[in-house]
């Protein structure tokens, strides 16, 4: 009889977990709100390529304010962008947030976005959103050259991103080319210098650069003295400095400025899917992120990304955006597909 | 990617029989699974069972079919441009280098460890016998995390070899240790009486008899090397699988990812065929009844310290380093890292997927196992092979296939828990299959017939008699699948419903943010969930070696 | 004849279990000695001590004049040059028959050409009456008897002067067993190899042995030629172990016993007074006696009644209840009613209830103790 009791126990465990798993795995989509004026309710699914911690902070705050449940699907820019294109009208996503603009342009070009509410667009200055109004900037980040002063003197620092193609830099700089961040930088390069120059520069980079996975890892390696310098985004450095500083204590940052491709300021985007089952809540979420509450989180939180709203200043620790002398690029012009092809051709991915 | 797990017997001399995840119990002592007593002659199986088995197997062909079909649709010009490029050469060199160096290394270490704990009088050999199985409870990507924490500069091929060897040597060690216990001691004595000394006996008699478990273990190591993502991504070592994941991150399921997947599938097939060729037609049946006597242990004499150094060093490197890192990060994080509410949710979700996946996989593996044991035929063997083949494919390939297929053709399943369970089913079916089959084969049909002659309905007879006999095997089958699911990363990342946070996903997300402190609790939980299963596997490998 | 193997004062225990006690055994060179004992008697351990797979706790073992085990001496098994054939042959499952045999070839031949080795293997196969084409087969394709013969050929390859066989025929079925045994005996005889075989099968033991050693609970009770041990066992245990025995109380004087079967010649002759005697069933002749009266002309006769008949084909076993106070002189009333099992040709038409007269032939063995 021991046997049958054991079976009963097994069956019980199985049943309970089956119920549990189905219960916690498939969030129910709520019915769309009846009219534009209705208060947001129900739940939304966000395809999130932004840093999970940042979006989670936005989501938590938004949920606290509106009661709307936010489910995140985390991934990288291109992955989620391409995924949305593949899913087409069948997508379960309501909102798409990116770190950089190429991926969101990709989805825009596929015609999958609904226009962003005018009220939302008004919260964002024109240079941080495409003229079509199909998506909007939500945050910004600047390209920097992080370096280890014990391995490289200030006078040796590259004046331009183009300098890194020089054989003198062979084995002396690092990047994370498989990441969307670096690919956005390449898309800016492509936009500014054209396809031939980009192909040549990538070929030189293949010779010169040491490849890491992730900007944090690049910074960590520079800090550890494994490599003199590397191309990353600014906020990795500030984030680490604000914490323990263990991965950045021995590093410095160099801003290229001069409208160099290396001074590229990348715009993170947000858009609402045309097929959203809950457009009211989705639009409300985007309005919240670009509004004062959402932008404040960029200023006060640990993300150290730049707010795009005029009404909120950047974290005082950061160099103000206006001083970075970034090249002027329409974010909606950045092309991710060509970049991916060029990167594949160069053998980075 | 699956820190695989040993399993019990899968004895058929079929090329694919050590499907990934099943440490096929290439036990070296011939087929224990299919006994004549269990075969039903002259009767036809129930059409429902055949239909179920065929359905599951056809499902199993989807990933391979996907790779072939997308290859054809992409067209040769595009495909060749994507395949014949320097990057693929680099990856090929890296991947082949990894396999060629690591596989022999794990074989040597696995056999040496099995011999030391099984055949020498080294004090503490019993303890080491268990300890050396424990690396299976540490997923390779957690091991890598432990090593990168301890030695941050690790990168490239040799670091990959180091971590892979330490993670995977038990795949050779366990089957070899089990086979060593099963070898007929009189055969070794015969060699001694013919003038062979200790080394002569080992190399001329013991080692050749371990050929099948070594080959089976080596095949598993090879397949794991081809499919592992996390462990190599963390040390910046590019293999086909890491490159496919990167392509996926850049293009979702673009043609380049699919082209790489095609090459990776070819590498897998190459391994399978290679192993089958090396195995040959031989099966080393134990002759005669043998003697119920344990082979006497040898004293290592002056080499005792060296023996300790080897076993202790192996354990320290394979388990000590990752554990020390996890504990160090945990200490650094203090109580704070445990207060994350996601932690509990993540644990429950992981256990839920593990249990449901294990039950479903066992249930669906049953018809195939039943046909294989009770109605052996060309059909049943074919169905089995299909499933071994699928599970040999890296999880990333299966996941890519199912993402695309579900988006295009079965959208209601897309991003649902059901699809995740189906993926687990395809990936881990052989783990269940080998165990269920071995268990079923041990049940004499005569007992069931006796029950029927006593007036029981055939189904009642089956439930009443057979299930009780093979319950332990079913439990082992479920445990193995559970272990696989708990530590699965890539397929879950691609396929899970939005908001899914298994332990592996959470761990990986933290590691990617260089939040090693935050990742530590997830690492610990995965190890803690895996340890009992690992012990169960160890205990079963001992059990079968006695019977 | 000098001894090829000499054991003196050999003791062996496993933990607290005493396996062998003070064993002394001498195996003459070129002869076949069979150690027979029931399972657990320690016979396999005895063989393993000689072969070197176990070491004695005390005592010495000498093989061909060289002490291989003794105080401070322990020659490893592979250096003893002793052939060994295990119970089920212990063929190497990963090698073919030919490779199995070649495994044992001496260094000279192992280094020789492929042809030389093949010829040596063929010769060895021929020695054990197997055809040369067996060399290419795998062990699991052979019958049990063939496996045993290959195992013997493999052991012979090293041209050992001493061969140990551990129950080599017990796994074979009856018909095969006799054939294989004869082939093995003949092969060893021709090669002049000193052989020790252990078995629990008495018939096999007696048929194979020049010298029989009976082992009981770790003690050698008797060593001698098979006939001597069979007909003149030193005690009742040995008597019963080697075959059926009819044991009767008797009074002995002047080399004759007076018992329920009358007057029977006994050995040893030295015994006197109350004792018991042992006869083999085949020593007792049965005749039908219609009248129930004894024939005064026979040496010893009495009458009993058949209580049971077991038919075995060529022979029958009769259970005969002796009459109390029958015609023959019965020394004591207590002997009356003794049940005696005797064997006769199957042709005898005895049925239950028949009255028979029993006659003992030959000499009985007398023991001092009463049964």
From TrEMBL, chain A:
InterPro entries: Ferric-bd, TAT_signal. It comes from Cryobacterium sinapicolor. Residues 1-26 form the signal peptide. Belongs to the bacterial solute-binding protein 1 family. Keywords: Ion transport, Iron, Iron transport, Signal, Transport. The keyword Transferase does not apply. It holds the Pfam family SBP_bac_6. PROSITE patterns: PROKAR_LIPOPROTEIN, TAT. This is Iron ABC transporter substrate-binding protein.
UniProtKB/TrEMBL annotation, chain C:
SUPFAM superfamilies: P-loop containing nucleoside triphosphate hydrolases (SSF52540). Residues 5-242 form the ABC transporter domain. It comes from the Bacteria. Gene3D superfamilies: 2.40.50.450, P-loop containing nucleotide triphosphate hydrolases. Keywords: ATP-binding, Cell membrane, Ion transport, Iron, Iron transport, Membrane, Nucleotide-binding, Transport. GO terms for molecular function: ATP binding. InterPro entries: AAA+_ATPase, ABC_SmlMolc_Importer, ABC_transporter-like_ATP-bd, ABC_transporter-like_CS, ABC_transpr_FbpC, P-loop_NTPase, Transp-assoc_OB_typ2. This is ABC transporter ATP-binding protein. The lineage of its organism: Bacteria, Bacillati, Actinomycetota, Actinomycetes, Micrococcales.
């Amino acid at each position: 009889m021991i046997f049958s009791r054991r079976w009963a126990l097994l069956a019980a465990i199985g049943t309970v977990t089956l119920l549990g798993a189905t219960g916690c795995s498939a969030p129910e989509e709520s019915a769309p709100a009846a009219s534009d004026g209705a208060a947001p309710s129900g739940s939304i699914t966000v395809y999130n390529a932004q840093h999970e911690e940042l979006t989670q902070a936005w989501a938590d705050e938004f949920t606290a304010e509106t009661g709307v449940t936010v489910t995140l699907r985390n991934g990288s820019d291109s992955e989620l962008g391409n995924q949305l294109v593949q899913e087409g009208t069948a997508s379960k996503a309501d909102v798409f947030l990116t770190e950089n603009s190429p991926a969101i342009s990709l989805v825009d070009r596929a015609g999958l976005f609904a226009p962003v509410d005018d009220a939302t667009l008004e919260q964002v200055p024109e240079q941080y959103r495409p003229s079509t109004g199909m998506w909007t900037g939500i945050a910004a980040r600047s390209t920097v050259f992080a370096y280890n002063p014990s391995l490289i003197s200030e006078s040796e620092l590259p004046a331009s991103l183009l300098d890194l193609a020089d054989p003198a830099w062979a084995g002396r700089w690092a990047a994370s080319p498989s990441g969307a961040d670096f690919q956005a930088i390449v898309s800016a390069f492509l936009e500014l210098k054209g396809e031939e120059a980009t192909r040549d520069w990538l070929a030189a980079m293949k010779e010169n650069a040491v490849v890491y996975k992730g900007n944090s890892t690049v910074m960590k390696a520079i800090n550890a003295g494994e490599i003199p310098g590397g191309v990353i985004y600014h906020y990795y450095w500030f984030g680490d400095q604000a914490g323990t500083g263990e991965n950045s204590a021995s590093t410095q940052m160099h801003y290229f400025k001069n409208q160099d491709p290396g001074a590229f300021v990348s715009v993170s985007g947000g858009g609402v899917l045309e097929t959203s089952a809950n457009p009211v809540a989705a639009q409300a979420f985007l309005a919240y992120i670009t509004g004062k509450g959402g932008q404040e989180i960029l200023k006060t939180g640990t993300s150290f990304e730049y707010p795009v709203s005029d009404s909120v200043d950047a974290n005082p620790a950061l160099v103000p955006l206006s001083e970075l002398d970034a090249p002027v690029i329409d974010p909606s012009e950045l092309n991710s597909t060509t970049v991916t092809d060029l990167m594949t051709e160069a053998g980075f991915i | 990617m699956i820190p695989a797990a040993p399993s019990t017997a899968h004895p058929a001399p079929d090329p694919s029989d050590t499907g990934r995840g099943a440490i096929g119990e290439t036990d070296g002592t011939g087929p224990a699974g299919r006994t004549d007593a269990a075969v039903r002659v002259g009767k036809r199986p129930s059409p429902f069972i055949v239909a179920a088995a065929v359905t599951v197997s056809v499902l199993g062909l989807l990933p391979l079919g996907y790779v072939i079909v997308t290859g054809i649709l992409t067209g040769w010009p595009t495909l060749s441009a994507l395949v014949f490029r320097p990057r693929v050469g680099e990856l090929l060199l890296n991947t082949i280098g990894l396999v060629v160096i690591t596989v022999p290394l794990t074989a040597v270490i696995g056999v040496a460890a099995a011999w030391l704990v099984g055949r020498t009088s080294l004090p503490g050999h019993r303890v080491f016998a268990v300890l050396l199985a424990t690396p299976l409870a540490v997923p390779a990507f957690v091991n890598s995390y432990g090593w990168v924490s301890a030695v941050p500069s690790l990168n490239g091929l040799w670091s990959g070899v180091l971590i892979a060897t330490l993670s995977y040597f038990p795949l050779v060690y366990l089957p070899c240790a089990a086979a060593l216990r099963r070898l007929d001691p009189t055969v070794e004595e015969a060699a001694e009486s013919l003038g062979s000394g200790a080394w002569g006996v080992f190399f001329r008699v013991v080692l050749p008899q371990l050929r099948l478990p070594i080959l089976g273990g080596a095949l598993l190591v090879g397949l794991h090397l081809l499919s592992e993502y996390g462990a190599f991504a963390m040390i910046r070592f590019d293999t086909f699988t890491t490159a496919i994941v990167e392509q996926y991150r850049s293009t979702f399921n673009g043609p380049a990812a699919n082209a790489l997947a095609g090459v990776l599938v070819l590498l897998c097939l190459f391994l399978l065929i290679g192993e089958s060729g090396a195995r040959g037609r031989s099966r080393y049946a134990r002759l005669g009844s043998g003697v119920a006597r344990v082979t006497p242990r040898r004293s290592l004499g002056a080499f005792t310290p060296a023996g300790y150094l080897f076993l202790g060093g192996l354990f320290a490197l394979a388990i000590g380093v990752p554990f020390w890192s996890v504990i160090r990060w945990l200490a650094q994080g203090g109580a704070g890292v445990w207060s994350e509410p996601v932690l509990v949710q993540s644990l429950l979700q992981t256990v839920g997927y593990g249990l449901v996946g294990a039950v479903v996989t066992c249930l669906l593996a049953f018809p195939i196992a039943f046909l294989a044991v009770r109605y052996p035929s060309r059909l049943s063997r074919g169905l089995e092979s299909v499933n071994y083949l699928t599970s040999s494919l890296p999880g990333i390939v299966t996941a890519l296939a199912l993402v695309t297929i579900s988006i295009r053709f079965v959208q209601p399943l897309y991003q649902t828990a059901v699809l995740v369970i189906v993926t687990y089913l395809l990936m881990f079916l052989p783990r269940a299959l080998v165990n269920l089959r071995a268990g079923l084969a041990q049940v004499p049909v005569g007992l069931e017939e006796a029950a029927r002659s006593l007036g029981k309905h055939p189904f009642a007879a089956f439930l009443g008699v057979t299930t009780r006999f093979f319950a332990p095997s079913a439990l082992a089958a479920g445990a193995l699948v559970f272990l696989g699911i708990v530590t699965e990363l890539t397929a879950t990342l691609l396929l899970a419903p939005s908001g899914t946070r298994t332990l592996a996903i959470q761990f990986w997300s933290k590691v990617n943010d260089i939040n090693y402190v935050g990742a530590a609790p997830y690492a610990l939980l995965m190890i803690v969930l895996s340890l009992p299963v690992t012990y169960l596997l160890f205990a079963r490998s001992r059990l079968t070696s006695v019977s | 004849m000098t001894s090829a193997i000499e054991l003196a004062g050999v003791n062996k225990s496993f933990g607290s279990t005493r396996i062998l006690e003070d064993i002394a055994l001498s195996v003459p060179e070129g002869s076949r000695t069979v150690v027979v004992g029931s399972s657990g008697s320690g016979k396999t351990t005895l063989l393993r001590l000689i072969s070197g797979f176990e070491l004695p706790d005390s005592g010495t073992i000498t093989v061909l004049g060289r002490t291989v085990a003794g105080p401070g001496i322990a020659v490893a098994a592979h250096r003893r040059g002793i052939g060994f054939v295990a119970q089920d042959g212990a063929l190497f499952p990963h090698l073919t028959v030919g490779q199995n045999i070649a495994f044992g070839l001496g260094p000279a031949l192992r280094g020789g050409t492929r042809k030389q080795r093949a010829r040596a293997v063929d010769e060895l196969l021929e020695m054990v009456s197997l055809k040369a084409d067996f060399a290419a087969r795998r062990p699991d394709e052979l019958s049990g008897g063939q496996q045993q013969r290959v195992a013997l050929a493999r052991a012979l390859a090293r041209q050992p002067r001493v061969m140990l066989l551990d129950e080599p025929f017990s796994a074979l079925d009856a018909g095969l067993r006799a054939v294989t045994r004869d082939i093995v005996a003949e092969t060893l005889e021709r090669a002049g190899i000193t052989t020790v075989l252990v078995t629990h099968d008495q018939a096999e033991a007696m048929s194979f042995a020049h010298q029989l050693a009976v082992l009981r609970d770790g003690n050698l009770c008797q060593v001698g030629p098979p006939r001597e041990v069979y007909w003149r066992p030193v005690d009742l245990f040995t008597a019963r172990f080697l075959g059926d025995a009819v044991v009767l109380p008797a009074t002995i004087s002047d080399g004759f016993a007076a018992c329920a079967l009358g007057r029977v010649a006994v050995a040893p002759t030295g015994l006197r007074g109350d004792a018991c005697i042992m006869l083999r069933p085949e020593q007792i002749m049965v005749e039908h006696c219609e009248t129930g009266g004894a024939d005064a002309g026979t040496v010893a006769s009495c009458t009993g009644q058949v209580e049971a008949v077991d038919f075995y084909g060529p022979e029958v076993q009769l259970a005969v209840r002796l009459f109390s106070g029958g015609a023959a002189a019965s020394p004591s009333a207590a002997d009356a009613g003794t049940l005696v099992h005797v064997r006769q040709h199957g042709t005898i038409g005895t049925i239950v209830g028949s009255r028979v007269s029993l006659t003992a032939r030959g000499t009985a063995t007398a023991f001092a103790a009463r049964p």
